[in-house]
Amino acid sequence: MHFYDCSTAPSPRRARMFIAEKEINIPTTEVSIAKGEQLKPEFLKINPRATIPVLVTDEGVALTENLAIATWLEEAHPNPPLMGRTPLEKAEILQWAAIAESQGGAAIAEALRNGNPHMKGRALPGPDNYEQIPALAERGLARAGRFLEMMDERMQGRDWVAADQFSYADITCFVLCDFARMIKVRIDESKPALNAWYTKMKDRPSASL
Ligand SMILES: N[C@@H](CCC(=O)N[C@@H](CS)C(=O)NCC(=O)O)C(=O)O
Q: Which of 22, 43, 66, 209 has the smallest C-beta neighbourhood within 10 Å, fewest atoms?
């Protein structure tokens, strides 16, 4: 196996946390998005869609989506279970990861990629260049704020995001909530339930990698 990581980006951080929580050692290569290494021919041979993370399996298959990486690792290394044990647990975990991606991750990316002058012409990840749309930056900012409010509501009276256990859903929600800092949307005492869970998540050794 080989893992392609980028220490500054949220999607690879999700996979990195998942691997760490599973206590698996995988040889890793850092791909710097800041230096544009994801667009170099060497990397495009590994993932033509030019995104990170990538986990290349022993069979040589490149898994380029967090869900694929997590699902595959869970099958190969079932303990500790991070994708749920019962059908309902599995469904709830996938549901909350999907909600976080569409309501949180997409909103934050919209705000950051359409508003940051360093991302001019790179409004979407991937091999093609897209121009920024300033109105999307504004909309993304508003949606990211709503995402944190929704997460605060979700965390009221619960320890974990889904299925009453630490899971892939917590990793996804934590990384995306944390990444909202990049657009100056922060978790604070105004969201006590979210803040308590976020503080607990931040203390996990996998969160500091
Ligand atoms: N759906 C993918 C998303 C991968 C993705 O968009 N990665 C971003 C970093 S967070 C990337 O590679 N960006 C490259 C770029 O900005 O050019 C996943 O689940 O991991």
A: 209
Q: Which among 11, 118, 122 is the best mutation to test ligand 1's pocket, defined by most ligand atoms within 8 Å of the CB? A: 11
State whether 106 and 29 are in the same domain: no
CATH code of residue 10 = 3.40.30.10
How many CB atoms are closer than 10 A to CB 117?
6
In ligand 1, the atom with minimum distance to the C-alpha of 10 is 10
The pLDDT value given to residue 194:
98
Residue 82: inside a domain, yes or no?
no
Supply the residue whose CA is at minimum distance from atom 11 of ligand 1: 51
Q: Per residue in 94-153, pLDDT tens?
A: 999 999 999 999 999 999 999 999 999 999 999 999 999 999 999 999 999 999 999 999
- The C-alpha atoms of residue 119 and residue 139 are separated, in whole angstroms, by 17
Residue 157's domain comprises: 87-204
The total domain count for the chain is 2
Using CB atoms within 10 Å of the CB of residue 61, give its burial: 0 to 12 exposed, 13 to 18 middle, 19+ buried: exposed
Residues 45-83: tens digit of each pLDDT: 999 999 999 999 999 999 999 999 999 999 999 999 999
Model pTM score:
0.98
Mutate to test the pocket of ligand 1, among 7, 47, 51 (most ligand atoms within 8 A of CB): 51
Q: Is residue 209 part of a domain?
A: no
Ligand 1 binding pocket includes 47 (Cβ within 6 Å): no
CB atoms within 10 A of CB 55: 25
